Each structure stands twice: as C-alpha cells, then as structure tokens.
C-alpha cells in the first residue's frame, strides 16, 4: 500500500538515502575484491616460497633439473624427469579410465536410473570419496595389486604383450596400478560434479529433443551431453587436479622407481610421492632444496594444466559457436 | 615443565614408553616428542627449536659444523635389519656379504644362481626371477642396510653408497616397513629388508647372515647387543655397528641417538634432561627388550653415562 502511493516528496526522500546503501555496495565490492586478491596472493606466495626454498638446487642444476633422469641422494645429483613423466602418465591413465566411467555413471544417475535407486547409489559413490587414501593404498597392496597381477595384467600380457606398452615382467606394482588407484580416487569427484551439471540441464532441452522424435540415446547425446559439454570438461579438470597431487595411495602401488619406461607394467614414480617419501629423512641442504624444487615443478604442472584447460575451453566454445552458425 | 624433542620414527615406541614411565618417576616434567623423521630431528636441534633431537644415523660433519654449540650424540637402543623373502616352504636361507650385495645390485637375477645354491646346500631354490623390494621412503632402516653393503662391497660403495635413501640399481620401492613386508608377502620370488620386528610379527622367514668372523648368525636382540659390544665406538659415539667383529655379532644392525647440546641454555630444563637421560640409560634400557629393541651392553652404557655427566648447566 505504502509503495502504491508515492508522492514526489517521498521520492525525494528516497533519493537522499542512497549514499549509505552505496557505501554498503562499495564495501561489499571491496570485501569480495580483497578475498579474490587474497587467493591470487596466496598462489603467488606459494610459488615464491617454493622458489626460495629450492634456491640451491635451482642454482646448481638450472634447467637440467627438468631433463635429467638421475635421482641420487648419495652423490647429490638430482633430476626430476622420471617424476614428471610418472605424474603425467599416471594421471592420464587415471583420466582414461575414470572419465568414461564417471560420466556414464552420472548419465545413468540423472537420465536412466529409477528414482528409487538414485539416492542410494549417489550416497555410495560419495562414500567412496570419503575413504582415506592410506586405507585405499593398503587395500591396493594387499588386494588390488595381487588380483590385477594374476588376472587383468596376465591377460593384457598374453594378448598385448608384443606392444612396448605391456612388455617386460609383471610385478603387479606398476605405473598402470598407480593409474588405476588414482582412477578409483578421482571417480567420485568427477561423478558428483558431472551429475550436478547434468541435473542442471533444463528439461526443455530433453522435451524438445523427444518432440523431434529422438531416441533416448539421441536425447542424451544431443540434448544433454552436448549441452553440458563445458561443465563436464570442468569436472574432468577438477579430477585431473586431484590426480596430479594424489600421494599416499599411489606411493603404495606404483613401485617408486625413478625410471622412464614405455611399459605400463614397469614401476614408476610421481612428483608428489617422492616428496612424501624422502622429505622427512633428508638431511643435507641441497637434497632438501631439490625436494622443494620437485614441489615447485608440481605446482607449475598444476598451473599449466589449468591454463591448457582454459585455452581448450575457449576453443571448445568457439567451436560450438561456429557450429551453431552453420 | 615441558621438554620438547623431535626426530627419528624408529625408536618412537620405546621413547614414548620411556616418557610415560618417567612421568611416574618425576611428575614435575613432561616430555613431548614428535616423530617427524631423523632429518627433521637434526634440523630442529640445529635450529634450537627443540630441547633434544633424535636421529637414526649419526650427524654428518657438515651438519655438526652448523650447530651453534657442541652437540652430543647419546646412543639409546639398537635394532636390526633382516633380509626377508617369499619362497615356497619359507626355508631359512644363508647369505653372505657378496651375495647380498650382488642381489641388491641386480647382478644375481635368479634364485637358482650358482652363488646362492652354493651357500644353501639342501635347499631347493627355484628357477625364478628375484624381485628386489626396497624402501622408497627415506629411513634409518635403509641407512643401516646400505651402510652394511657399502662396508662389505666395494662395488656397492662406489655405485650406490650409504644414505637414508639411495639411487637403487634395481627393484621396486615400497613405503615403510609395512609396505616392504606387504610387497614381499604378495610377490613370489621377492626379497627385501625390514626391521627385525616386522619380520617376526608377520611371521616371515629371514636369512642368517655371514658375519665378519665367518659365522652365519640369526638376527636377534642378543646378536645385535653382541654387535654393539664389539663395534668400534669412538668417543663422540658417532659409530656404525654394521659388520661388527665377534662370532655372535649380527652384521646388519644400527643404533639410534638422542642429540643434545653440551651447554644447556636453560639450567632448570637442562638438569631435568640430564636426570632423564641417566634414567633412560639405566632403568630405561631394561624395558628395551619387551619392545623388541636391543639394549646397549653394560660397558657402552657406562661410557654414555660419563658423557651425560659432561653436560653443562
């Protein structure tokens, strides 16, 4: 009622009020800006601190640190290449396994599953995320690795043993086992995020596709997945972020050998694992600095992978824009 | 009053037992020990952020030179590394220095190698690949093992050396004693080294090792204490007891140390610390065996007591 009868005088009064509201607006703006800057600052501080902590090693080895394969704490000769290789390869294996599984699970949960079983399934997947990684690692040594070695690995060896990727002796603990355990660990996060994204696809999309006579698969593919493409990609990147930094469980099954081998059955090593393994007992300065530099490299890889993802997203949206025009 | 310490993980169980028991002896003082690893223990005592440090290996000359005052090494207890394996029937193998070094160097690749069969008449060794398992995390266990191998094998000394982690010529790395014992148990044909207690608890077989006197000795608390008794121990107590002489000495063993400054800054705290150290070297030593640590022999404990008396308040 009061709103309905607005006299000019009252409008004038209202006009005088703004300053405080604007102040609140400004304050809010500053506050959020400060928070956003704090995050940026934090990233810079981490980078700076890592660079400072690895000074000795950077001075001694320079860029060679990134392309040398020796890691010899006795002779104090340090190179990060096998760890960089191991981190990237194990994460890629994890993504190759986890992404199709997670997205398929998310599709099933949002599009196909009967309502009755949706919630229990979602809870189960979220419980998987709650398993501490050291427990998963111990399960990895005692259950997963022996099983992998005796059945799937033995099968791969028989059928694909002639390729360099599955050659050599099968110990069980290997780059492949490391990738598989990471896949198990990143599946819940990719699945949950994907599920949220698929749920946010408007029903109009689906109805429109059905109206055009699309089958269920076509609806899922064209109206849902294609629409949610960017979001799903984001979910995958979140998973990758976790995969790159995953430590405990991987350490227990990857074999911890700093070598570069084409065979996925050969043991490997990751950046995060070597830090976790050797930091506590490192006594010399150069050794410690080399380990911190490993952290710096991991930091750089994480940032680089995010940048690449950004660029990828840009080209992706440009691609879909052109397609829309066509 | 709280006395803070940090360092080695290997003696953590006995240290916490000591602190617990000592609280009954002297309720006015509380000990707080963080088992963050020997590297951390050395760093923190050098930075004087703790009242005592703890380390599974003696400090290097380089690190000692960084100390703001004279640091004393106080040996407390010792432990053994055993060579454990996964072979059908779990026979007790006999190994000598050369063979052990060659296996871990990757030179002996199969179980039926002539060197192994010659040492083990009567044991049927399979024609199977040897899978070497070693620690991937830096540890005192690795330090003791590589210290032994470097002493007995020139090849090992020049190619690999001694440290808490080394550049392993062969094998797969597993995290912690539990990781190595788990890996060995799961892998037929595997061989690895773990602390004695882990092999005993997991009922894993372990090899008798030929010692410096030429006897094959089984690892036990007694054979470790025997080794400390015969090892060359310099006055600063920075000793290595691997490959010690004497017919009963088990060759792959090592001690663990507490690190304290000779000149204590805080007289009241220093006094309490000295009292505790003396108690540990006498009453404390008697608790070692129950927790599967080898106590120091009497003559060494007496020498250590004299050193503790030199701590100035």
Question: Can you put this structure into words, describing what you see?
Answer:
The complex is a heterodimer of chains A (326) and B (313). In chain A, strand 1 and strand 2 (77-78) form a beta hairpin. With 326 residues, chain A is mostly helical. Chain A is built from 14 helices and 2 strands; from the N terminus they run H-H-H-H-E-E-H-H-H-H-H-H-H-H-H-H. Chain A is globular, with a radius of gyration of 26 Å. Chain B is built from 12 helices and 12 strands. In chain B, strands 1, 2, 3, 4, 6, 7, 8, 11 and 12 form a 9-stranded mixed β-sheet that branches. In chain B, strands 5-9-10 form a 3-stranded mixed β-sheet. Classes of the chains: A mainly alpha (326), B alpha/beta (313).
Walk me through the topology.
The complex is a heterodimer of chains A (326) and B (313).
Chain A: H1 8-16, H2 18-53, H3 55-61, H4 64-67, E1 71-72, E2 77-78, H5 81-112, H6 115-129, H7 133-150, H8 152-160, H9 175-199, H10 203-211, H11 216-245, H12 248-253, H13 271-278, H14 285-325
Antiparallel strand pairs in A: 1-2
Chain B: E1 2-7, H1 12-25, E2 30-34, H2 38-46, E3 52-55, H3 61-65, E4 71-85, E5 94-95, H4 97-105, H5 114-119, E6 131-135, H6 140-152, H7 154-159, E7 172-174, H8 176-186, E8 190-195, H9 196-201, E9 208-210, E10 216-217, H10 221-230, E11 253-261, H11 267-282, E12 294-295, H12 298-309
Parallel strand pairs in B: 1-2, 1-3, 5-9, 6-7, 6-8
Antiparallel strand pairs in B: 3-11, 4-8, 4-11, 4-12, 9-10
């Amino acid at each position: 009622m009061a709103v309905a009868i607005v006299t000019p005088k009252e409008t004038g009064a209202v006009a005088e009020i703004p300053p405080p509201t604007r102040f609140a607006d400004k304050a809010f703006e500053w506050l959020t800006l400060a928070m956003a800057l704090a995050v940026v600052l934090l990233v810079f501080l981490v980078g700076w601190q890592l660079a400072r902590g690895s000074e000795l090693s950077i001075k001694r080895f320079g860029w060679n640190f990134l392309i040398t394969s020796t890691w010899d704490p006795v002779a104090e000769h340090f190179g990060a290449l096998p760890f960089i290789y191991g981190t990237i390869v194990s994460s890629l294996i994890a993504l190759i396994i986890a992404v199709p599984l997670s997205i398929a699970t998310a599709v099933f949960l949002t599009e196909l599953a009967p309502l009755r079983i949706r919630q229990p399934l979602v809870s189960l997947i979220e419980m998987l995320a709650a398993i501490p990684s050291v427990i998963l690692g111990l399960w990895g040594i005692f259950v997963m690795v022996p099983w992998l070695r005796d059945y799937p690995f033995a099968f791969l060896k028989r059928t694909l043993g002639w390729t360099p990727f599955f050659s050599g002796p099968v110990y069980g603990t290997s780059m492949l086992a490391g990738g598989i355990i990471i896949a198990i660990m990143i599946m819940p996060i990719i699945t949950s995020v994907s599920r949220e994204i698929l749920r946010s696809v408007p029903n109009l999309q689906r109805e429109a596709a059905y109206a055009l006579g699309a089958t269920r698969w076509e609806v899922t593919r064209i109206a849902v997945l294609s629409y949610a493409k960017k979001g799903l990609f984001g979910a995958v990147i979140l998973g990758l972020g976790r995969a790159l930094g995953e430590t405990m469980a991987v350490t227990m099954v990857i074999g911890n050998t700093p070598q570069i081998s084409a065979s996925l059955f050969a043991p490997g090593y990751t950046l995060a694992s070597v830090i976790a393994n050797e930091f506590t007992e490192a006594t010399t300065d150069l050794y410690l600095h080399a380990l911190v530099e490993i952290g710096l490299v991991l930091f750089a890889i994480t940032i680089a992978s995010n940048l690449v993802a950004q660029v990828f997203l840009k080209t992706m949206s440009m691609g879909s824009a052109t397609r829309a025009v066509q | 009053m709280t006395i803070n310490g940090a360092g080695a993980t290997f003696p953590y169980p006995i240290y916490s037992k000591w602190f617990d028991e000592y609280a009954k002896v002297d309720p006015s003082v509380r000990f707080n020990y963080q088992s963050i690893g020997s590297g951390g223990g050395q760093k923190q005592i050098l930075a004087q952020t703790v009242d005592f440090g703890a380390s599974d290996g003696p400090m290097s000359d380089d690190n000692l030179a960084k100390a703001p005052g004279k640091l004393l090494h106080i040996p407390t207890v010792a432990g053994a590394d055993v060579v454990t394996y996964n072979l059908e029937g779990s026979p007790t193998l006999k190994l000598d220095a050369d063979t052990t070094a060659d296996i871990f160097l990757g030179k002996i690749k199969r179980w039926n190698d002539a060197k192994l069969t010659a040492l083990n008449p009567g044991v049927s060794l399979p024609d199977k690949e040897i899978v070497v398992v070693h620690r991937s995390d830096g540890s005192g266990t690795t330090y003791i093992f590589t210290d032994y191998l470097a002493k007995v094998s020139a090849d090992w000394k020049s190619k690999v050396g001694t440290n808490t982690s080394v550049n392993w010529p062969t094998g797969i790395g597993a995290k912690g004693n539990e990781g190595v014992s788990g890996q060995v148990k799961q892998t037929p044909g595997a061989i690895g080294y773990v602390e004695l207690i882990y092999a005993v608890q997991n009922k894993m077989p372990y090899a008798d090792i030929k010692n410096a006197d030429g006897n094959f000795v089984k690892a036990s608390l007694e054979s470790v204490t025997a080794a400390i008794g015969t090892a060359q121990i310099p006055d600063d107590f920075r000793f290595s007891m691997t490959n010690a002489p004497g017919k009963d000495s088990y060759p792959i063993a090592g001690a663990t140390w507490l690190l304290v400054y000779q000149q204590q800054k805080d007289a009241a705290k220093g006094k309490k610390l000295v009292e505790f150290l003396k108690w540990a070297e006498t009453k404390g030593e008697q608790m070692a065996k129950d927790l599967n640590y080898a106590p120091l022999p009497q003559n060494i404990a007496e020498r250590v007591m004299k050193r503790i008396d030199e701590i100035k308040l």
